[in-house]
Amino acid sequence: MTDPRIQPSELDQLPDRDPEETAEWQASLDAVTKAAGPHRAAYLMRRTLERAEGAGLALPKLLETDYVNTIPTSAEPAIDGDEAMEARITAWNRWNAAAMVTRGSKYGVGGHIATFASAAWLYETGFNHFFHGKESQSSPGSGDQLYIQGHASPGIYARAFLDGRLNETQLDNFRQEAGGDGLPSYPHPRRLPWLWEFPTVSMGLGPLSAIYQARFNRYLTNRGIKDVSSSHVWAFLGDGEMDEPESTAALALAAREELDNLTFVINCNLQRLDGPVRANFKIVQELEAQFRGAGWNVVKSLWGNAWDELFALDTTGALVRRLREVPDAQVQTYQTRDAAYIRQDFFGSDPALVEMAKLLSDDKILECFHLSRGGHEPRKVYAAYKAALSHKGAPTVILAQTVKGFTLGEGFASKNANHQMKKLTTDEFKNMRDLLELPISDSQFVDGVVPYGHPGADSPEVRYLQERRAALGGPAPARRTHALAPLPAPADKAFAAFDKGSGSQSVATTMALVRLVKDLVRDKETGKRWVPIVPDEARTFGMESLFPSLGIYSPKGQTYEPVDRDQLMYYKEAKNGQILNEGITEAGSMADFIAASSSYATHGEAMIPFYIFYSMFGWQRTADQMWQLGDQLGRGFLIGATAGRTTLTGEGLQHADGHSPVIAATNPAALSYDPAFAYEIGAIVKEGLRRMYGEGAPGEDKDVFYYLTVYNEPMPQPAKPAGVDEGIVKGLYRFNTAETAGLSPAANAARIQLLGSGTAIHWVLAAQKMLAEEWGVAADVWSATSWTELRRDALEADAALLRGEERVPYVRQALQGAEGPVLAVSDYMRQVPDQIAQWVEQDYSSLGADGFGLSDTRDAARRHFGVDAESIVVAALARLASRGEVPAAAVKEARAKYGL
After folding, report:
1. DSSP string, 109-161
2. Residue 246 and residue 207: Cα distance in Å, rounded?
3. How would residue 1 be classed by pLDDT, with cut points 50, 70 and 90?
4. Which of 5, 186, 499, 889 stands 20 to 30 A from 249 (CA)?
């Protein structure tokens, strides 16, 4: 009879050279299980697997280990420092973080106390021993990159106060920035650019960005731009934050590329914003399995030294089994209950645990369950950080268990509502003072206001703190704007390539842009600084010719023979490759872009990222990261290719972009352009390089990025008219008049001004001709390269008028004296051209592609949305008829003629 326990296995397919030996091993396992129990058998199996791994045998790893520390107490290294001194420093920082938020609560500005209270030692241990500053000898100008958990910012401000980088007035301006001297709520480089490097509080973006920052560090090193191999990236995250899909989206990339210059520190206080992270489960075990499965090194730091006695008493394994089965919400409950409850609920479930509990005092039980967590003991944290830095070949995640609201008292610790609790009472502060043993007297609480605490600028604590930071390369976190020389401007030849037009050759603006980039990356001075980024669509955009010349970045190089090796444009990967071809991940590509765009500050090396993507999958999908980019003061070029609602024949609703310029307009750092012609692209990119990387103008903001929409519709490219560069950059210029277009209108012909952007300019030009030849109407055509920049200029002009300054918006200046009404046309929703309506003195109307996209030919789609040349003609006649400048019957006649 077949043993029902034996199921079909994939091993049945493999040869067994000694079935008898195999059967003996299996019999031995059965014997141990029968004689000593399944837990003993499991222990022996794990020991065997551990030995096999140590011997280098290729075996799959277990995805989950027991709910105990990875590093035994006996293996912990001694802390290289004064532990008592560091405890005093941490106590001051805990106090001031809570005081700052509480003092600000009277203004209703909020703040978070509980997060830093739980994570204090995770940060303090790093600042005292591990985090290298910008003046680090091992990585000068770069140091380590710290992604601070947003809700922990009060603790970082408290430390900056202790070491003299912030004063009491600044702390009192926490979350009060309008006056110009306040502290931002979270890590916001744009708001506090000398301190913060990386914005992280949009949860999920910190871990994703940290992975790509670590990867970009390797990219810089492998390409020979700068050796930053000694820089380490530390990302501090919450266990609840790991639910964000971005948090774990790139774990495999980090393992695949062996990013051992990266450490995640996840503060596992088991609570998210409203309650437990995994009330009925165990978030630490879940995260361990997830990271191990992705190929990461996992270090768990769960229990403090007080637990050593309990584990020593656990001769049957009952304690470890119980720790594994108790859900997180119950662990949280133990934190708030007395010893009697814990004896009954935790220890009372197993006879062996009942006997163990008899050997433990109530004080010992409370010490273990209320106080002793791995994340609250500096030796445990120090050991975990040491282990992370010594591990090679894979990134490390540290899962540190803490208590949310630790040291803040019974009213805070482990309470579900503590994320929303913004202040402590005076009595709670006094209890906290006594617990932390701080020399703050009752008399310092004046009128119920909690005082800030500081041991003095020349105190042993401050001297120690500053000495530790000096040894590690200066203050951290810190952002440096390096005094970089402006990048030399590339030769004009590249930008002027299309100034003469393309003649009879049809060229899509996407192709024109790619050709420009090809020329710019060949520039001897700045070519190496371009970082082309594409999410697995390089062939769509005609970039495959860059593969063999620039190479696709891979830390492994090319370990295979490419299938297209005999072709001119073969797929070439290289360790020093310049192109970042990210696979199908717009989020990963944006994280690449952010790392490259701020390299001028992070590493003192200006890089020029050029990220080209399907326009529909840019702002719509990753607008949060683009906001992060603006906050991080990034610079570079975002290219929305295959743009527009009607240019993608057959692609349909989810591909047809009719709104990316609307979303881009909401980002103050984004300069958004919709160029119609190839020569406009050259002028815009040239201006962008000057503004972001060149000399710049006095008072001009360099910390911007450019968004250009380009199209896959091949059209003949006209020659560049004289004197239009200023208009291209500002957003509007007259491309031609009816007369210069050779249409010879009658002297008394009705006249209209047609404004078009992007690919719509071609329908406008066709309408211009039809209006003249079929209806006797003179139309002048304008190219609106940026509706958004026109609006921003107008808004600034309005603000200047309120200050008593005389200033006329550029759009009004440009259109001054233009006869007739203005009709604006775009391949986007009408909201895009309507941005300028209120500043146009003429009668203004617009056409656009509102609604959802659809699949059809370009002509059919344009007819559907009413933006084709015939629809423009009818709309123009309607505007003129309403003014009495053409007969009303002309409108009806035109509709019938064109089948509208």
Report:
1. -----HHHHHHHHHHHHHHHHT---TT-SSSTTT--EEE--GGGHHHHHHHHH
2. 7
3. very low
4. 186
Pairing of strands 844-847, 822-825: parallel
Mean pLDDT confidence for 641-667: 92
Structure token digits, residue 527: 């070519």
Q: β-strand 552-553 against 396-401: which pairing, if any? A: unpaired
CA 455 – CA 520 distance, rounded (Å): 56
Q: Which helix (H) or strand (E) holds 640?
A: strand 636-641
- Closest-CA residue to 497 (of 308, 681, 669, 642): 681
Considering only CA atoms, which of 113, 114, 153 is closest in space to residue 404?
114
* pTM of the entire predicted model: 0.94
What tens digit of pLDDT does each residue of 823-847 get?
Answer: 999 999 999 999 999 999 999 999 9
Distance of CA 714 to the CA centre of its chain: 35
Helix or strand holding residue 611 (H, E): strand 608-614
Cα–Cα distance for residue pair 214/228, rounded to 1 Å: 10
Give the confidence band of 6 by pLDDT, cuts at 50, 70, 90: low
CA–CA separation, 663 vs 678, rounded Å? 24
Over residues 29-42, the pLDDT tens digits come to 889 888 988 888 88
pLDDT > 70: what percent of the chain? Answer: 98
Q: Whole-number mean pLDDT of the chain?
A: 93
Q: How does pLDDT run across 750-785, given as a tens digit for each residue?
A: 999 999 999 999 999 999 999 999 999 999 999 999
Question: Which residues share a beta bridge with 636?
Answer: 705
Confidence at 422, pLDDT banded by 50, 70, 90: low
Whether 421 has a pLDDT exceeding 90, the answer reads no
Q: Please provide the size of the chain in residues.
A: 900
| Residue 176 to residue 182: CA distance in whole angstroms | 5
Query: Do residues 830 and 850 touch, judged by C-beta distance below 8 A?
Result: yes
User: Looking at the DSSP assignment, which residues form a beta bridge with residue 755?
Assistant: 782, 824
* Residue matched to tokens 């209108």: 745
The pair of structure tokens assigned to 40 is 């003993």
DSSP-derived secondary structure letter, 63: S
Spatial neighbors of 551 by CB under 8 A, at least 6 apart, are: 572, 573, 574, 576, 577, 578, 579
Indicate left, alpha or beta for 650 from its phi (over 0: left) and psi (-120 to 50: alpha): left
Residue 889 to residue 867: CA distance in whole angstroms: 21
Q: Report pLDDT digits (tens) over 715-755.
A: 999 999 999 999 999 999 999 999 999 998 898 999 999 99
DSSP string for residues in 248-289: HTTHHHHHHTT-TTEEEEEEE-SB-SSSBSSTTS-HHHHHHH
HEC string for 742-775: CCCCCCCCCEEEEEECCCHHHHHHHHHHHHHHHH
* Pair type for strands 715-716 and 506-507: antiparallel
Alpha-carbon gap, residue 222 to 590, rounded angstroms: 21
Longest alpha-carbon distance in the chain: 110
Residue 411: predicted pLDDT: 67
Whether residue 356 contacts residue 321, with contact meaning beta carbons closer than 8 Å, is answered with: no
**pLDDT at site 409:** 78
Angle between helices 869-882 and 889-898 (to 10 degrees): 170
Q: 349: which DSSP letter?
A: G
Give the residue-averaged pLDDT of 568-587. 93
Residue-by-residue DSSP string for 406-455: TTS-TTTTT-TTGGG-----HHHHHHHHHHHT----GGG-BTTBPPP---
Instruction: Report percent pLDDT > 90 for the chain.
Output: 83
| Residues contacting residue 840 through CB under 8 Å, at least 6 positions apart | 811, 812, 815, 822
